[in-house]
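Encode chain A's predicted structure.
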Amino acid sequence: MTRRRTLAPALLAALLLVPLSACASSSGDSGGADGIEMMAGSPMSADAIGDGSYASEDAQVDAAGRSVIRTGDISIRVADPNAVAAQAADVAKDLGGHVASQSIDRGGDGSGAGASLQLRVPASRIDEAFAALAELGDVVSESRNTTDVTAEHVDLRARVAALETSVERLTKLMSGAATTSDLLEAEAALSERQQELDGLTAQLTALEDQIDEATIWVQLSSTSTLPGGPANFWDGLVAGWHSLVAAGAGALVGLGILLPWLALVGAAALVVLLIVRAARRGKRAVRGTDGDAAA
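Encoded structure for chain A:
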């Protein structure tokens, strides 16, 4: 019994040394390079995801187990877009989301005030977000969309998991390399796999962020007493001033167009007037000559 207990650790040590002895072979032996390539490129099935790899298990999936990206947009007519924009931002924050972007048009050009927001809320609470936003004013239009990215999500997670395993194996292989050539080759393969892993990890993170949080575009426009007109007195005053300036500029343009024609007509009228006067003078001179002859 004692002999078996002493042989067990020896056999285990021998089994662990087998991969290291293969790696320590000469560079002429095909075991070094081929072994590294096999370690670096070893495939991994999607079933291996989740056992210690990066792949997140928190990404939202629907009842059918699909990964979907939810988006939507809503257009609302309100009295004060600036104030309602702050309320829309509060809606997103109350639901555990945030404002990704926001722009406000205060209507300085007389076109009416407005605001645009991009909200990010948890995908599971998108219906609550639309219900809360609809209470801010009069809904003009609303739409929602879903995009199924299950295949892309599963593929990215499998590739990330496979590369993580490959990087781990190459790291162990480097620690047991016995020759400089094997070490350099393992370092090159490890650097390449690490770059691929970093790129795919960034893609997976961005995709899962879109899955976890829905995106809602909110368009706020001001109400107006006149269809398409200003919303209040000051906006009307500004619009009237701009219209007056535009009318004055248009009148100046029209005057500039007419000036050459007015000059031409004036010159022609002057020529005609001179001819008429010359004719009258000639007639008077003739009459004066006839009077003197009769006397």
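Residues 1-57 have pLDDT under 50 and may be disordered.
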